[in-house]
What we know:
Layout lengths: L1 H25 L7 H24 L3 H24 L10
Helix pairs in contact: 1-2, 2-3
Amino acid sequence: MENKRLMDIFIAVAVLLCIPLVAMQFTNEVVWTVSDFIIAGILLLGTGIVIEVIARNVKEKRARIGMVLGTLVVLFLVWAELAVGVFGTSFAGS
């Protein structure tokens, strides 16, 4: 059961990474490099694994929901910073 959920995470990450890969075939507005795919894969896989660890170890429902939401907020903030430089750090993509 545990291995199946981990495999589901890997499959979900692969499917999500196929979206920009397919879009690159049809438009010049999506231009990802290999490093973009690697970084996105690390972010998505890391988020999936953190959520899985939270789901396994946190028993209280409200705490689990809060931690998962917090993890997703961190993912979106990091993704936005890397994409357009919301906070202006040296990691900004713009």
